[in-house]
Amino acid sequence: MTDVPANPEPFPPFGVHASEQVYDSPWCGLRRDTVVLPNGRLQEYHVLELASAVGIVPVLPDGRVVLCGQYRYTHGNTHWETPAGRIDQGEDPAVAAARECLEETGYRPRRVEPLPGFYPTNGISAHYAHLFVGHDCELIGEQALDDSEQITAQVFTRGEVEALLDAGRFADGFTAIAVLYWLRRQES
After folding, report:
1. Number of domains in the chain
2. pLDDT (tens digit per residue) in 34-54
């Protein structure tokens, strides 16, 4: 097994000359920062403020996977995704992942295992996505969807999930990355 290379040495952070809240809502915020660059110049940064989120790959005891066919208003398309959502204030990410899985699919994982997370838009936001695998999921009830959610849950074989991934059908980054990490773990 190859050793994992170290991260690069960290650069000193930019100094903050000024910061202004441009917009704020329960869903997102926009901040305009003026930072001091290493050469002393000032530069404006626009920072999108979003709460951290979770995504989970729900795996049944027989190895099949539950996916959500979800409509997304922002681009008007419906596609397959893993359950995902925001972390409530003070909520543990693993608890949030199990909650989202149950709400969006009706399935509850017996065990939640962390996968590597990621910054979906690290050039403009500190928003972080925590990813998980939900093992031995069992159907315990109906979906509990928000008014704006249109989601159908469907069970797929591992081969079907791989075919969707290989065909580029996971247009959602949370889903593509979570499925890739999950599949890589299965190969080990």
Report:
1. 2
2. 999 999 999 999 999 999 999
Compute the C-alpha angle 61/64/70, nearest 5°.
125
Range of the domain at 77: 53-187
| Same domain for 77 and 63 | yes
**Same structural domain for residues 110 and 148?**
yes
* pLDDT 10s digits, 5-14: 999 999 999 9
Would residue 4 count as lying in a domain?
Answer: no
pTM attached to this predicted model: 0.93
List, in sequence order, every beta strand (DSSP E) within the chain.
15-24, 29-36, 42-49, 53-58, 65-72, 77-81, 84-86, 107-108, 111-118, 129-135, 138-139, 151-156
Helix (H, G, I), strand (E, B) or coil at 38: coil
